[in-house]
Amino acid sequence: MGDSSVAFDISLGEAPQVEASTNRTFNGFYEAEADVIGTALALSCDDVDVTDWALLVSLVSASQRWRHLLNHPNPVGWVLTAGLGWADDALRDRPPSVVNTATGGYTRGLALADALAALPLTQRASLVTAHFLGWSDDYTAAGFEVATETITTRRTRAVTFLGHHLRVPAAEVEAVVTAYLIERAAACSPAPPDALDVRRRGRLRTIRNRAAAAVLAVGLIVAGSAALQVESAAPVAVGPDPVSGPSASGAWFAPVSDGKGGYVALNTSGAARFIRSSDGVEWFEAATWNSRAVDLRGRLGNFVRSGDR
Question: What is the pLDDT of residue 11?
Answer without folding.
Answer: 35
